[in-house]
Recover the amino acids of this structure.
């Protein structure tokens, strides 16, 4: 076998992998695999597609959105952490996030913003 013959399958496999990464994930596109509205992974799903099938907010009504509640994350640690870095995860009827310098895990009620529990 020549080097060229061995290289063809490798190039084909690489091209297929790259092309499949660009296609929408079937489970995400159809809302399957997780409950509608859940965001169980940092990027939305296990493939980090950042896709949500929800359509309640759109270009026509986005400008009319209002703040429903605010959650203060700076007081979860030995001193206030004003640089908040967190991506909430929604599973079922709960939000999960981290807060403070030591990344305390918290569970929130998504309807009210109430802190339900925390773990350090």
């Amino acid at each position: 076998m020549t080097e060229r013959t061995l290289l063809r399958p490798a190039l084909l496999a690489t091209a297929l992998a790259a092309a499949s990464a660009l296609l929408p994930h079937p489970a995400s596109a159809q809302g399957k695999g997780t409950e509608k509205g859940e965001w169980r992974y940092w990027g939305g799903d296990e493939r980090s597609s950042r896709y949500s099938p929800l359509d309640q907010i759109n270009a026509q009504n986005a400008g009319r959105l209002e703040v429903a509640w605010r959650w203060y994350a700076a007081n979860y640690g030995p001193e206030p952490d004003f640089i908040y870095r967190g991506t909430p995860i929604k599973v079922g009827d709960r939000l999960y996030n981290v807060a403070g310098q030591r990344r305390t895990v918290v569970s929130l009620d998504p309807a009210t913003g109430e802190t339900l529990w925390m773990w350090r």
